[in-house]
Amino acid sequence: MQNPSCYGSGLIFSDNPFSNTRHLRLHFACGGDGWSSGVHLSSNQKPLGLFVAAAQTQPLPPHIFSTGTDENFRFSGTTKDSIPLDAWTHWKKLGRPKFIVAPMVDHSELPFRLLCRKYGCHAAYTPMLHARVFNENPRYRSREFSTCEEDRPLFVQFCANNPDVLLEAAQRVEPYCDYVDINLGCPQNFAKRGKYGAYLMSNLPLVKSLVERLAKNLSIPVSCKLRIFPGLQDTMNYAKMLEDAGCSLLAVHGRTIDQKDQKTIRANWDAIKAVRNAVSIPVLANGNIRHIDDVWWCLEETGVEGVLSAEAILENPALFAGYRLSGGCVLGNGEIVKDLRLDQGELVVEYLKLCEKYPVSWGIIISHVHKMLGDWFRIHPNVRDEFNAQKSLSFDYLHNMVFRLRELGVASPLCVTHTDLHRLNRNTHHRST
Ligand SMILES: Cc1cc2nc3c(=O)[nH]c(=O)nc-3n(C[C@H](O)[C@H](O)[C@H](O)COP(=O)(O)O)c2cc1C
């Protein structure tokens, strides 16, 4: 830090910036902003180390440089009241991501995340990882979790029902991500059998202890992805409980545990808005984001910080760059820009190249190809049948298949409107300033 305008030193009693149990209170004399100097210890905890600190007058909380026993800690904010401040400081440091790839088992893996990032996505979740298996099985770890330098900001999502197990898994990934996320929304039968995901909604004390354990012990913040309760007040109480337990960000899927069919049941944005108004930490909306119009609409309607997309972005990974599938291009006012260089085949080709660089299983690749080329296969089902019948696949085969489909004339360009381009540019400018 250059030219800090105030300094301090003392003992470290808690090294977690996102915990709500602070054992240390720092006040600085920083001319005119109401801070006084001193250190207030609120319990008789054993100190973790010594610190010296320096802070500039304006931005809070102060930056602190450790000279004590734990060289790796990061610290900002000091009291329970300052959790939202920490949560917002972190969120702003990440550039306030707005457009986010949702967690998807077998689908939000590294190559897909990188493809979406190239086309406008600001942040992404990994697929849900099973915390216990992650700890116990090195092959599962290396198969299911990979990342790289460009893959940030990144949420790593776990399912778990044991705080110790969850913490161990979280500590393995904390150097590689920006949030450790707890899956509180999976409604599938395997989650019911395993007693995790949305089935934790019937055991809120356990949910609280999962969040608290991470919040007190990780050096990065905890986020939760949750489903809503049928009753609005229950949903708001739930969100507030998560915030109080130390959660720094909520992604709210606006459907209940019984509303499993996200293609036919509309997500409840009113409930998302109510959560956004009930808590002080950043909130993201999930559900009903099919194209860029939905993104703008949802941001306006709910007032959330950002939106997640799952089903729709699988078909159109360029959704957050404003690209519409050709069916969505007819606006009738003649303002459409057709980008002839981009179609779903081109997105598949780019995805395949990323898979060659960052290998994933053929099962994952096959599923993405089906999602991205679904419209093309519907016109030429014989090509799909031949693809399905392959005993072993190669990248050459897949590239050639895209080429053949194009030769058959099925390609239709994705397109962007001038209005969206303008809005997206404004948004990019806003994020970088
Ligand atoms: C293929 C697939 C896999 C999913 N896997 C996960 C997951 O691992 N973790 C999770 O929290 N939600 C998972 N979901 C749910 C999505 O993240 C999202 O909440 C849901 O699809 C609603 O968003 P949408 O309306 O944009 O599809 C998955 C959804 C799909 C389609």
Automatic annotation (TrEMBL):
Which UniProt keywords are listed? Flavoprotein, FMN, NAD, NADP, Oxidoreductase, tRNA processing
Q: What is its EC number?
A: 1.3.1.88
The organism's superkingdom is given as Eukaryota
Q: Which cofactor does it need?
A: FMN
Task: Domain (DUS-like FMN-binding): give its ranges.
Answer: 101-323
Q: Which InterPro entries match?
A: Aldolase_TIM (IPR013785), DUS-like_FMN-bd (IPR035587), tRNA_hU_synthase_CS (IPR018517)
Q: Name one GO molecular function term.
A: flavin adenine dinucleotide binding
> Of which family is this protein a member?
Belongs to the Dus family. Dus1 subfamily.
State the protein's name: tRNA-dihydrouridine(16/17) synthase [NAD(P)(+)]
- Provide the species name: Dorcoceras hygrometricum
